[in-house]
Amino acid sequence: MKKTVDVSLPIGPLHPCFKEPARIRCETKGERVISAEMDLGYVKKGIERIMRGRPWQEVMFLAERVCGICSVIHNMVCIETLEKLSGIDVPERAAYLRVIVNELDRIQSHLLANFSYCYTIEHETLSMYLLNLRETAMDMLELITGARVTCAYMVPGGVRFDLRDEDRLTLEEALDHMEKELDRYVGMFKNGPLIAQRSKGVGIISRDDVIEAHGVGPVARASGIPESDRRLEHPTYRKLGFTPLSYEDGDNYARIMIRFDEVYQSIGLIRRCLENMVPGPIRGGGTVTAGEATHAGEAPRGELTYYVKTDEYGRIIDIAIRTPSIMNIESCAHYMLEGVSSAADITSTFISADPCIACAER
Amino acid sequence: MVEYLYEKDLRGMQFNILASTRHEWVIAELSSRYGVRKPEIRSRLIERLDMILLENLPARYEVWLDHGDGEDPIARELGVELLTVYIPLVEDTRMQDIAQETRVRIVEDGAHDDAIAEGLARVREMIRS
Amino acid sequence: MSFLQSIKNTVRSRSIHVSYVNVGSCNGCDIEVLAMLAPRYDIEQYGIYVHNNPREADILLVTGAFTPQWEDKLKSIWDKIPEPKAAIAIGNCPISGCVFNRRGSFVDPPVAKHIPIAAEVPGCPPRPTEILNAVLSLAPVVFKDYEEKQQ
Q1: pTM score, two decimals?
Q2: Is A62 exposed, middle or buried (0-12, 13-18, 19+ CB in 10 A)?
Q3: What was the ipTM of the complex prediction?
């Protein structure tokens, strides 16, 4: 048989562009990638195994330590699953506060993802601007929840802290600031000629391939599948009149632009929450009982599904977490990287899918 | 002497991936569909797929349940796309041959159940080989 | 102190190269290390550069409880760093395993079993300023008069 593969190019596990350890093995012909495989296991901690047999009060904290970047949504989906299986209602104000915190988390996660991409294509100025803007979102998270990363803000039946009136003014100011600054940065990204050359038409994934690999979140929405957004099924988001965005191209540029657009959208959602919020209780209370439920929510990276089974004392008997990064990294490794024309584009395409290895391996 | 640092035996870690609740469910479904024992399915999966595809098995299986094999009931019963596209365990051409021969037999003999059973037996041999 | 040593001290105090390695953390500590790059904390004003290349690093930041994949690899990364060098454990995980150190998990903390750790920054995750403070206070202890201490 004729040998078509020239070089087997391993990237990782420790690579200057990767925030986390992962190893991509690319079969290349010249510099063109023919196929890619991934080796994992660098951050496999076995969280689901630890969670089994523990009371929900412990599982709640383990759940948000599945991923340090999108810890709020892990907390939110875990708690909402527990509420669903034991029929606990949430007060209206608490529901809005949850959306506010979740959207702030989405803003910081998307900005971090775009920072990583700009850093990988070596536009360091823009990446530093974005990282600095992310600090504003982190400040607001800290202001509302009391911690920067692992905040455990939501509990069954409500949230832990109320938003004070003076904090609300600070939050509104911060949103105005973020929107104004972001206009500049998005302009820089759109009008930079070299950025367009590095991003447009690179790492294309078609709509059918996304469906095949079950790609979710920004990866799916950049390839023209807006209906994959799980926020459409969330009652509070419905009340806010949420409509998902989408791009058609499915290349790196579309994936970065959809994240920028979603940051604007999140700012709008937080503003609408602040308008609709009326003073009221933030904690309704309730007991976690025996039951079994599957619930999905929209993480910054896409659909996050929890399957939880509890006994009558609220202990977790069985749990399965399906994180969005699993699907997105798979569609990146097996579809986007195929046919990428240079070694530099391998890393930038991989980063554009916003891989979170800690999520994927748990 | 060159040290092959990265080419480490990863089978233990691949097995850990397959140990979660959702993966157990997929393996049980595959096992009952094709009549192959679970440990055998696991070892074939570990041999033939890379680690991120192993992680993604439940999602891909669910997509196949919803969209896979289109309108063709015979292909769906044999799981043609399931084993070639969604969970690529067997060769595409041989799987298509089996599906084609099964279709021909159903048209010629009219024995639908027998033909499907024979097709599944041939797929089982392919998974095992 | 010799003249050569004093020159070395001056140069080293303003050029500390940092590499970070994630040996099984949840990402929380990694993004706090990354946040140090942001203009708000501006790690480069102290002469600290994040390179993520062990061969040109002076300080290795280790995050995460220890997973089995790293058993052979962390030691080899540590050996690649040129002398003088130091490792800092960031977060609770490399120190004790934090919430992951339970029966049934795959992790094997502490990291100090595998490479020598010079300083520890507890927290889940620690704030960027705390990490920065740890790097800045460790650097003179390790690098000042290194050659004279060796003799």
Answers
A1: 0.89
A2: buried
A3: 0.87
